[in-house]
Structure formats: structure tokens, C-alpha cells
Amino acid sequence: MGQGSDLTVLARDVRACRLCEKDLPLGPRPVIQVHENARVLIAGQAPGRRVHETGKPFNDPSGVRLRRWLGVDEETFYDPTRIALLPMGFCFPGTSKGGDLPPRKECADAWRQPLLDCLKSVSVTILLGRHALAWHLPEAQGSVSEVVGAWRDHAPRVFVAPHPSPRNQRWLRNNPGFERDTVPAIQEAVARALIG
Ligand code: SF4
What we know:
By secondary structure, the protein is α/β, with parallel strands linked by helices. It has helices spanning 6-15, 49-54, 61-70, 74-77, 105-118, 129-136, 144-149, 169-174, 176-195; strands at 40-43, 83-85, 95-96, 99-100, 124-128, 158-161. The model has no long low-confidence stretch (mean pLDDT 95).
């Protein structure tokens, strides 16, 4: 048997990563879901404490909302041959007074581009929040809200969304166009990608 595909080898290396171990309060536990055949990429922020403990991403109210935005059930969502889950930081970064800390920057510097280079079947990318937006669309002007509002600029290949956390309930109330206009467009693009 050979060494496996580039992605298999990379994913193995990621899961053994200790690069920023000294800065991780609970230690490294990279949580990613990748496969060469994935058609949809979800670029999240970083695992929270619960994901660190369970190893299962978006297994919480944020995940319920995200799956509704995508129009997919749990079986589809957790199928790596269909959906890739690649947060900006792969390990739980810890918390501060305002909530979880930002994803560790070393993570994207070390791993993101090589992993994306292996995900050649991805045709729709959903960017959740400002960290994913800043890395994937550095040319985008304005705040996350402004870029989300201008969703047609990048659709149907890339959509920018707020993080689906319950913490963003107020943002969703103040920006009703997202669930009214953008979410149906996301659902249509995801459905097409998964069929295609
Ligand atoms: S956050 Fe990323 S760079 Fe840091 S230990 Fe985890 S996988 Fe490695």
C-alpha cells in the first residue's frame, strides 16, 4: 500500500500538529473534515470548547442554524465527500472576557493553502465571519455586514455569512436581508454543487 493521497498525508500531518501548543489552553486537537471529492467548503472560525471535547464540529445550536442556511441535513453535512469543514484555526484557541479568542494565525499560515490546493472539487465556499473573510477575500472592502450585504459580488461561488452563533441573533435581526435574500441563494448554490 502507498502513502495515500496528498490530502490524506496532509490531513494526517495536521492531526499531529503541535505548532502552537504552548498557546493553547487545552492543548492541540485539530478538528477538520476534508476529502478530495468535497463540493462545498465551509470556512469557519475555530473550534469552541465543546468541539474540542467532542471532536465534532458544529454539533451545537450554531450547527443547527448553519445546516438550515445551507439546506442540508446532518448526514450530508458530516459527509466529507460532500462538505469540507476547514476553520481558520483548527484547535480551540481559548477564551477571553468577550468569548472565544481569535483563531491562531499560525494555523492558516502553515496549513490553509496546501489543504485548499487539494480540494479541487469545491465549487461553493461559505465564509463564516471576519477571519475567514479577511483570509479568503482580502480585496473585499468594508465590514462583514457590508460584504454580506453585497453578496452578489461573489456569488454563486463564494458567500460571506456571519458566524451562525446565537450570539449573532441581534445582527440577524438588524440585517433581515441576509435570511430573506442571501440564504435562499446559498441553498440553491449548495444544492447545485452537491448534485453536480
Ligand atoms: S491551531 Fe493549527 S497550528 Fe496550532 S496546533 Fe492546532 S493545528 Fe497546529
